[in-house]
Amino acid sequence: MRVVPVSAGVGAQENITSLPGAGGRTGFRGQGDNGGVSGTSRDRDAEGRARSARPRDGLGRPLPYGVEGVARQPEGVVRTAAQTLEEAQRLLDAGMPFHAHEVFEDAWKSGPAEERVLWRGLAQVAVGLTHAARGNTAGGARLLRRGAGHLADGPAVHGIDVAGVVAWAEELAERLNEPAAPVDPAAEAPRLLAAPGRR
């Protein structure tokens, strides 16, 4: 990239790329020609935030433009704790832990300050399961342990089986230390709520 002093004037030389502006935009296209976003424009959501429009698979991995993917979770949704847990459990049971992690992130960002460590821990164990399902067992184990640590530090509220989820995360993280194929996220999905009658 060549940078020309301002004194050279606009259009003084062709084929010159300016430095990124305030928005971080350049005149370059992204790596390769994927038919997608150019360097001068980015996919944005309705509020103007950068958000890739590339389709995703059930584990949140980007797919090529034009391929049909799985519907993404809307971001910034404020749900009750019960709605969050119901939606996240549905997604976990469907083998979509990446999407469940996005639901937990919304609760983490919008919930009461004293519960944020709990929601953060749940988001981290969900993304740990995501990595394990993608075949990144080392990263999955690390995130499962980190999430379990946050859960252990958080409040036991909303009927969440904190001890059960911590035990599940630690047990799965331990199994991921052994050489193995990616895990089946639906088969490995944790139960978020304590069984009725259990304390």
Automatic annotation (TrEMBL):
Residues 21-38 have a biased composition (Gly residues). InterPro entries: DUF309 (IPR005500), TTHA0068_sf (IPR023203). Residues 14-67, 177-199 are annotated as: Disordered. Pfam families: DUF309 (PF03745). Residues 41-59 have a biased composition (Basic and acidic residues). Residues 178-199 have a biased composition (Low complexity). This is DUF309 domain-containing protein. It comes from Streptomyces purpureus.
